[in-house]
Amino acid sequence: MNAETQQRIVDAVDASFEAQLATTRDFVAIPSTRGAEGPCQDMIGDLLRERGYEVDDWHINIDDLKDLRGFGPIEHDFSKARSVVGTYRPQTNVGKSLILQGHCDVVPAGPLDLWDTPPFSPVIKDGKMFGRGACDMKSGTIGALYALDAISAAGFKPTARIHFQSVIEEESTGVGALSTLQRGYRADACFIPEPTGGKMVRSQVGVIWFRLRVKGHPTHVAFAGSGANAIMAAYHLIQALQKLENEWNERAKADRHFKTLNHPINFNPGIIMGGDWASSVPAWCDVDCRIAVLPGWSIADHQKEIVACVAAAARNHRFLANNPPEVEWSGFLSEGYELTDAAAPEAAFGKAFGAVYGGSVEDLVFTALTDTRFYGLNHGIPSLCFGASGGEMHGFNEFVDLESLKKTTKAMALFIAEWCGVEKA
Q1: What is the C-alpha separation between 363 and 351, in angstroms, rounded?
Q2: Measuring CA to CA, how many Å separate 99 from each of 3, 166, 345, 402?
Q3: What does the radius of gyration of the chain's CA atoms come to, in whole angstroms?
């Protein structure tokens, strides 16, 4: 790809950036929390049809996925769950095929009064777009769509098959991405524009979700000593799991990538529910937890360690010793992933990055996870993850930096053109 072609594509991104932001605002405005992603998938389907893509929109059948590597248990109503894929098929097929993927699900906004502006009424100010999902990762998904638009607007068309995939469940199980693989979608490479601050994810953690189900013995609080408080017992187990977290972080010091980070393994008791009455000693407590694992670590082995940790802590508790808690698996059972055997797509992206940013792309050792793992681990498809800068993901006043979004859109457009090849339209 010569310099003139590059410049025409970059100029096309600039020319359509206001339209890109308008589409992003509309996308962010949809409150697509878990189980409510349908309107976002409708919007993506419409955008793809308007552009002439071949659209596949299907309901996800859990029975088709439950035996696949990386499947995580689904506990909520999944009857409306859908994946949407738009496929571009070239007239001249001489390049390398590509999957472009984004997730449309977002985490809950939390107490609305703690946001400066409503989370689903996106606002642009000070060079940023604020709103739940603006950063993670709706701006990246729309950016990928407009990167494809820029190639067309510049007078070119790709010369390889492209699948544009909009998935759900990235924030809780990953089965949306898994469903596209079960459906048969494959390519020579995958690119996911998660917000990485302009760095390439080199290695990322996996995640295990689990629930502690703790029993107590109820009594009137006036006679609390004769009962057993399930909430306080749950704290006893949490403290034991914090020690396990420390042990796993010691192991992480041997990992070639994660040894550069302080405390890459994070344990989080994220949801706690228990008790029925303020003046009654609680008879039950459920705690939903998350803990990370590193690439190469066995999910099954680390599940066993969690169970053993909880059992050992229970044996040292007055009530739990005879009333052991239960451990349930409640979402992610996801391996970590290291980007390997990706010299060709990385070289193509390196050219695109250099043309937009100058220099070489930096690596990112990521203490969260992305859907890239399914492509690399399940099918050996090199899966790149690179995107814009932003902040407050999963927090209040989430935002994406718009200048970084424009740059990443340009880099994506040039990467697509380099990897897939282009010819004059």
Answers
A1: 15
A2: 25, 11, 12, 24
A3: 23
